[in-house]
Amino acid sequence: MSSNVPAFDGKAFVKGLNTAPGVYRMIAADDAVLYVGKASALKNRVASYFNATPKSPRIATMLAQVARMEVTVTRTETEALLLENQLIKSLKPRYNVQLRDDKSYPYVLLTNESWPRIALHRGPRAVPGRYFGPYASVGAVRETLNLMHKLFRLRSCEDSVFRNRSRPCLQHQIGRCSAPCVGLVSADDYAESVRRACLFLDGRSDELSDELGKAMEAASGRLDFEEAARLRDLMQSIRSLQARQYVDGRAAELDVLAVAMQDAAACVLLLAFRDGRNLGTRAFFPKTGGSTDAAEVLAAFVSQYYAEQAPPREIVLDRDIPDRELIEQALTLTGDRKVQIKTSVRGERAGYVDLARRNAELSLASERTSHAAQRARAEALRDLLGLPALAARIECFDISHTMGEATVASCVVFDSEGPVRGQYRRYNIAGIEPGDDYAAMHQAIDRRFRRAVEEQGVMPDVLLIDGGAGQVAQARAALDDLGVEGVALVGVAKGPARRPGDEELLLPGGRILHPGAESPALQLVQQVRDEAHRFAITGHRGRRQKARSTSRLEDIPGIGPRRRASLLKHFGGLGGLKAAGVEEIARVEGVNAALAARIYASLHGLETAETKAE
Predict the structure, then answer these.
(1) Minimal CA–CA distance to 117: which of 49, 76, 171?
(2) Sign of torsion over alpha carbons 532, 534, 537, 541
(3) Alpha helices of 391-513 — where are they, by DSSP H?
(4) How many CA within 13 A on the CB side of residue 552?
(5) What does the pLDDT look like over 552-579, one tens digit per residue?
(6) Are the C-beta atoms of 504 and 470 separated by less than 8 Å?
(7) pTM of this structure
(8) CA 231, 236, 241 angle in degrees (round to 5)?
(9) Per-residue DSSP letters for 254-309?
């Protein structure tokens, strides 16, 4: 905090508070939120920070930066807990324990459509539907999907395939799909299968089995023995699955959590069971904000993780945590069913706790080792480039296109702990000659750093350019035009043999370094460069596919937004339109024979009489 900012008078602030429950926020002079906390009595909790009791170094450092505080009063302590979790997620306070977002874990997705599709999903939850998970691995998801197809016969095909089927596919023939694409199942029956699949994925197999038993009896009562036999087989399959693996003699729906800590580094290990099936383990490495209290870290993890994921009926912890009963009440409230948090267990559950604890310790040790290796590579890069200090931020740019089409520039960011994916950026390049990599690089660098200069944004310590002397020269020119200084610019070019490890590093002044494959510094450069290349390729392919699937119709004379929408709706997408003949296209409202011929020719790269005349 700067010297002209008066110190925050915490005791005076406390006098204006009452003993209602609520949430408090500690804010620095630059308006950055330092800490968010909840309290059953705001006056008492906030006052505890400013009494004479000795504080830990972490708390003392935090309090020295506080310029002001804000509070929000809630009706109950449970509401305060929920609000605290929301604020921690949105504000990302520096001194809170924070669960890192990781979108790489796989889910089972059941889409929200007339005929829902069930599939594996990874990444942002942009597709409308229900997401079940996350699962420990792709293998666990595939095992679950295999069961779902056998038990409930839901479709897995993409919409473009589903809309254009004229006969049942192989999945129907082997009994894994009810073929809604060709009308072999009614909408009501399919919807019922979807509902039952949701019960199963929610871990409510006992309820599902009871329901199937009643339905089987009802079918027998109305002499529909074929339906009764199908329900009997389905019920037996589910009960057989429940009996295959169980905990304490019944189908289990529980999570086991253990935490391991070394200094302020933490690992929370999650071992999950659903319907008696072991879904495997997942290791999380939350940001602790300097806390060394394992119980505090675990409590923060439980609150934040289950604010995003549906909690199971039972959560077993390797130690007691603060506000356990309050968190239990909040999870019960948000989950619409009773949730129990247990800390002292026996028998088989105690074995699972021990397993989770040992795996947490191993995962943390492995993560610490990888961090040590990352630091060693960073130190080697500092020495190789002659930097005054370790690079706190490294950025790398790469250009991707196909013969000049859909040019995309990528920018990836690494800090001392590795990739910072939330700060990756892509730039769609326009206004240049197709295939001009030099102009593309100049435009990308200009766009990234112009905004940083105008808004006084963050600058990298090292800027890597995937390319040779030409690309580096363009990057240098763009930086000079903007007056950017203090950034170490390094080109990463393929060596004469064009093999990994033979890369040349191009430095200002024309110096060329050949660190060699054994160099930790080059290994770090390769890691960042490869990530930039992957990110650029992914963006380019997406842009190219979008251009090819949406703009080609619009480029045809006589095709406006309305006709384009009619065509795509009629044929279920561009794939169906491309598969249609001229006569079929001409049947679409508003499309005559001449226009249908132009559409067909354009989509198949053919010439028409009109184009020849031109």
Answers:
(1) 171
(2) negative
(3) 437-455, 469-482
(4) 21
(5) 666 677 788 788 888 877 776 676 787 7
(6) no
(7) 0.53
(8) 130
(9) EEEEEEEEETTEEEEEEEEEETTEEEEEEEE--B-TT---HHHHHHHHHHHHHHHS
